[in-house]
Amino acid sequence: MLGLQFLPQSRLHAILRRKFKLQPRSRSARIGRVVMRGIFVALDLETTGLDAADAHIIEIGAAKFRDGALIETYRTLVNPMVTIPAHVTDITGIRNEDMIGAPKLADVLPRLQAFVGDSVLVGHNIEFDLRFLNKHKLFTEHKAADTYELASVLLPKASRYNLNALMQHFNIAPEGDYHRALTDAIASGRLYYALWQKLLSLPLSLVREIAQLAAPLAWRGTLPFEAALHERATEAAAHDDPISGAFQAALEQPPLLPLATLPPLAAEPAAPLLSAFESAQFLMYEFAPNPSDAPPYLELAARWALQQAEPVVITYGSEALRQRLQERDLPALRARYPALRAQFLHRRAAYLCPSRLQTLRRQGAQNIDELRLLAKTLVWLAEGGAVSAPQPSIRGSAEYSAWEQLSAEAESCTADRCQSQMGGRCPMQRDRQLAAQAHLILADHGTLAAEIHGHDPLLPPFTRLIVDEANLLEDLATESQHKRLDAARLRRQLAEIGDVQHALIGDILAEAAGKLPPKPEASLTHFCNSLAQAAVHVPYHLDNLFRALQAFIEATTDAQPSEFALTIRLTETMRNKAAFDQVRAAWSILGQFTQSLSNALAQLAKQLVIYHEKYALSRQLAFRTQGAAQMMRHLHDSLEAYLNGTRSEAVLWLELSAEPNRGRRLTLHSAPLQPSNLLAAHLWRKLKMAIITGTALRVGEDFGYLRERLGLPEHTLTCSEASQARQALIFLPTDAPEPSEGERYTRYLERAVIELAVTTQGRLLALFSSFTQLRQSAQTIAARLRLGNLVTLDQSDGSSQDALLEGFRAVGKGAVLLGVRGAWDEVTFDEEELQAVLLTRLPFAVPNDPLFIARGESYENAFQHYAVPLAVLRFRQTVGRLLERQRKRIALVILDKRMISRDYAQTFLDSLPPSQIVRAPLEQMAATVRSWLEGALT
Ligand code: SF4
Fold it and tell me: Which UniProt keywords apply (predicted)?
């Protein structure tokens, strides 16, 4: 369902026009008209399920376009001869009774075939539709283009690539009901035309490069690129590399110098914060949320850094805070302190490595995921993306996995190497250089945690640190050290070594052939041959190892991976099971290969340095070989630690997931057991001052839980700003079913959201515990609210948070926002924007999360001393902030029976600002909330 679907059309268009600022149809539209003189047919199917093997078509929509204009449509229901599942009816609105008199597929297909003829087919995820039709021998030879693939490359900064989000991006209005075949077919056709115009505006040499990269692969975006090349055949291509200007040289700045005179402080600083700076203290400081003000430490930090010429590092936990700091608070601060220099740093994995990019461009992509990512990166660079962000938008695990080949998170990535290879034109090195000259250095918690113990840290030396949103530090420090290994990723790493004709070894031999005298060349060739022969065996043994691991999972559990991944914690007890013997045997063979290869590559790298000095062999080859040796060493050590359990400070687990179209995927995970140890050893003890701050640090009145989780020193001081009483009503239904009661709970939840929305007449934020839960209920809720002229904005369709928020604000009274908890924690709602918040469940950790279980084992009473405080902090982060930010009356409804029945409920209530609490059956909710909002209840 589209998030803005119930907005009046005129209003929706006004929002979208304002938001997306469409380009005028100029040159590209003119070219587009010429190119699109051919006919194409956009196609969409509605089906009873996702798998073409056993699902059935229930509706076909096809739209014929010429010159980008819609000229003819075809639409039919198709009787599937089976019952249509309820969830399909919920999504499409197609009911079983609609099939009375509808034609069967055999009658429909000839008509569809006649309509399409030999036209090119276009669709969003066209592969899905073609699978259903190819099954009936239809369109098996037709050329097809996929708008998802095309958009993924041509819109490198888009946050979503689903059809609805792309329609919003191009201001394409739906022509009919959502999730109906013809509506989606027409939308896909219009989207294709919009993308085609974008494609025609790219530099010709870039179009050519992507078409060449795509040629060996069966990619559904190839056709438009080839057509664009054909269309522009007479255009002269510039000889320059289209991305040559994308990497800016590092900017020189004068060194830091103390500033004698500063303007007076804008506001009186809090005494504990001032004292922390002046007396070099460790302080936990909880402040009351105030969305209109900058964080209370910011100006103090800037003054300190300016006066003392000593940098202050500030870290944050959320994207929302980064955005506020970057776009609002720092510009305001710079206006007062023009000499102030602030620099953001990101995780290494977020930066594009220009050197690796060149290698991949030269070698070409191995598969479609790599190709899509590479092409997207090239378009992003050609559009100047690297200047404003370290990486393009990356969606989905396959693209993330491919990004690893391009990112700067390489073991061998050093300033020295960069200087010699890239002349310093590396975005990561540029930011690092600027950070070394900045007063304030800003980074997320993950970057801080990843950099504090590395051998070549991005962060310059610092002794003063401010950690905002400190309740998120443990999670993000964990994530930064969370390692994932899967067979596909490992195979890709191994492919970088190559053979005598390809990749690293191929490049070494090719270069040596022209530069080395015969004897050293023969010796190098012999060595490389042996190395390549050994490398060729590794994928085979790697597959054996992963097969053995999968067999081990199957032998130790009856569960099947379904929509949710199956996880098994790998403990000593598990390793001692007989079923693990096969794993050990497979590793003992593979481990010999990985160890020998790592040693051989290290030896080769040393030799290449000598050949570089003696015979001017490329130095880059030595660096690449060094990198490959380190990669192999790292791979060996990781698997050794994982399979023989040599890292006691890590939590290890196996995850088996079943992904649509990709089959089963086995991943090995490793994450730190206690990030507090890492923080204590590598961070706190090196600092003079640390301010650990945020709006949710205490559980009740106690800072102890978070202090312990973060490993803060004993002498850390604590302080919290007084929380002001808010005009909040907390309604706790006494008759809520347990969430485990499935359908009964879902119906109850839907009733509660609908009644609350009707009572408040909108201005409601309902936070679901998961996307699955939201998807189950969103359609029902939206349909009912539409009858009451209330507008539903729903996160489950992939609409971006910005678009949803803008729609919510544009509608104002009458808007209901359905979101997933966590995603909205940091969003600032203005006064009067919300009248009510509904929370579906208390935010307890998932009980079978291996990290949660492993960490809980260090507590005598894990539930009371770990699970509850953890959930209370998350609860404060979510609803506490929403209540604190409102100065008008607001109602909070919590649909969790535990708030009535469990002792710990009071701990949750105590963590909120003083509020009016009412416990009553749901049927009293509407009257109670109405009285409260009208001021009748006090
Ligand atoms: S320093 Fe060199 S190897 Fe590292 S990211 Fe930059 S260009 Fe790549």
Answer: ATP-binding, Exonuclease, Hydrolase, Nuclease, Nucleotide-binding
**What SS3 class is residue 340?**
coil
How much distance in Å is there from the Cα of 345 to the middle of ligand 1? 15
Per-residue pLDDT tens digits for 379-435: 998 888 776 677 888 877 677 778 887 888 765 666 666 665 556 578 888 888 889
- Specify whether the CB–CB gap between 158 and 151 falls below 8 A: yes
Cα 409 to averaged position of ligand 1 atoms, centre (Å)? 9
* Opening angle at CA 324, ends 320 and 329, nearest 5: 160
Asked if 466 contacts 301 with a C-beta cutoff of 8 angstroms, the reply is yes
Q: What are the angstrom distances between the C-alpha of 17 and each of 11, 173, 195, 570?
A: 10, 11, 17, 53
Tokens matching residue 308: 């003392």
Pocket test for ligand 1, best of 358, 360, 422 (most atoms within 8 A of CB): 422
Give me the amino acid identity at 629: A
What are the angstrom distances between the C-alpha of 487 and each of 369, 588, 639?
Answer: 15, 17, 12
**How far is 470 from 698, CA to CA, in rounded Å?**
11
Q: What's the confidence (pLDDT) of residue 306?
A: 93
pLDDT score for 654: 92
Distance CA 675, CA 795 (A): 32
* Residue 660 identity: P
Answer whether residue 235 shows pLDDT above 80.
no
The radius of gyration of the chain's CA atoms, rounded to the nearest angstrom, is: 30
Q: How many CB atoms lie within 10 A of CB 414?
A: 15
Active-site choice (169, 179, 439, 636): 179
Mutate to test the pocket of ligand 1, among 421, 620, 621, 623 (most ligand atoms within 8 A of CB): 421
pLDDT in tens, 30-44: 333 334 457 899 999
For residue 352, the 8-state DSSP code is B
Domain 36-231 and domain 728-934 have a common topology: no
Concatenated DSSP letters for 117-155? TTPEEEETTHHHHHHHHHTTT-SSS--EEEHHHHHHHH-
Which CATH number is associated with domain 36-231?
A: 3.30.420.10
Q: Are 206 and 227 in contact (CB under 8 A)?
A: no
CB neighbourhood size of 685 (10 A): 10
Does domain 728-934 sit in CATH 3.40.190.10? no
Active site residue 179: yes
Structure tokens at 714: 């004993």
Ligand 1, CB cutoff 6 Å, lining residues? 353-356, 408, 410, 413, 417-418, 421-422, 426, 428-429
Closest residue by CA, ligand 1 atom 2: 418
Helix (H, G, I), strand (E, B), or coil: what is residue 583?
helix
- Strand partners for 670: 483, 652
CATH of domain 268-341+438-481+672-722: 3.40.50.300
Name the residue of 413, 416, 456, 621 whose CB sits within 8 Å of the most ligand 1 atoms, as the mutation to test its pocket. 413
∠ CA 930-935-938 to the nearest 5 degrees? 100
Q: How many Å lie between the centroid of ligand 1 and the Cα of residue 632?
A: 19
- The DSSP bridge partners found for residue 692 are 284, 467
Which of 191-200, 896-905, 911-920 has the weakest average pLDDT? 911-920
Domain boundaries, the chain: 36-231, 268-341+438-481+672-722, 522-659, 728-934
Ligand 1 centroid from CA 431, angstroms? 12
Closest CA relative to residue 250, chosen from 431, 7, 50, 468: 431
Locate the ligand 1 atom nearest the alpha carbon of residue 418 and give its number.
Answer: 2
Q: Exposed, middle or buried: residue 734 (CB in 10 Å: 0-12, 13-18, 19+)?
A: middle
CA 808/CA 800 separation, integer angstroms: 12
Q: Which residue owns the Cα nearest ligand 1 atom 4?
A: 413
Structure tokens belonging to residue 875: 């609860």
* Ligand 1 atom 3 nearest Cα: 413
Q: Which two structure tokens, joined as six digits, stand for 113?
A: 């075939």
